[in-house]
Amino acid sequence: MATAGKQCSNCGKLSSSKANYCASCGHDEFSELPRTGFNIDDGETNNALIITATRVLLVSILSGGLYFSYWGYLTWKQLASETEETHFPIAHGLSFFVPILGLITLYRHVVVTNTLANGVKAETYITPAMAMVLGTLLWVLAFTVVVVVPTPGIVILMSLVSLVVTTTITILNQATLNGYWLGSRGEQDLKKLPVGMVEMIVVVLGLLNWISVAMSG
What we know:
Blueprint: E1 6-8, E2 14-15, E3 30-32, E4 49-50, H1 53-62, H2 67-79, H3 89-94, H4 101-119, H5 128-148, H6 152-185, E5 191-192, H7 197-216
Parallel strand pairs: 4-5
Antiparallel strand pairs: 1-2, 1-3
Helix pairs in contact: 1-6, 1-7, 4-5, 4-6, 5-6
């Protein structure tokens, strides 16, 4: 079973169970925390890479919502070292494209993130129920586009609504995850996730899709 480390009795910051002094205030008295399912001792500090809300918003818009799946892969990969569960990041990200399975994956993603955040007393910004409602709305919109065969103007409108929904889910869940990183690692150990090649490819594909939609209108 994983340990949650120990909490500084002076400032409340979390540290590894092997620490002799608080990295935040230097205090040498701690209170042991109960086992919670995540592991401060074994998790690497450089795994705590935050993604800002501004970046999520910008990349989501430019990619036309494709970033949602890639974000699922990225964050699930990060969480692999924080829980005792078996993680399959690639399958996790791709499952967002599969009916029903995508909803189950989204629900699980929010549950795990919120559980970790609660463990360090960080604020949560989205509930599993809210995620399920928004996820269901996405599939209703997708089903409508396929079955009803709406006009180009309606397609653009539905695409924009879907983009708003996926971006909302991503920003709120990422905000919860960022709170967990802050609470479990401390601000001094936080770094921003570098922009990778795959993320740039996702943006390019999204831009090409936006151009295609605009030309069809």
